[in-house]
Specification:
The chain has a single domain, classed as SH3 type barrels. Helices cover 7% and strands 51% of the residues. The chain contains 1 helix and 7 strands, in the order E-E-E-E-E-E-E-H. The strands form 2 sheets. It has a 5-stranded antiparallel sheet with strand order 6-5-4-3-7, with no helix packed on it. The protein is globular. The two termini are 20 Å apart.
Amino acid sequence: MANSLSYKDKTYTVGSTLGITYKFKEGDKERKQIFKGILIKVKGSTPQTKTFTVRKISNSGIGVERIIPLASPFLDNISVLKKAAPQKAKLYFIRNLHAQQIRAKIK
């Protein structure tokens, strides 16, 4: 399916709320950070070129989007926090909504 992605034998669909664990180096240390947000877009056809976009609303109310390549060596884990089945393949319309409106639209 065009609006889903597979990672480590699990399938994630657009609209689901994901927790993405991302590794990065800070000086000598390697740290992990969790980015929790709604999967709004999946792009690419092969696993090497596939990317996905996750959007979250920060504590100050500003929307933050992150584009993550599926073949990235820094991608550690993806977990589903909430499942959803919206009608559209790409959820660009949530960019103009507040957090409460997003929860009402995506069920």
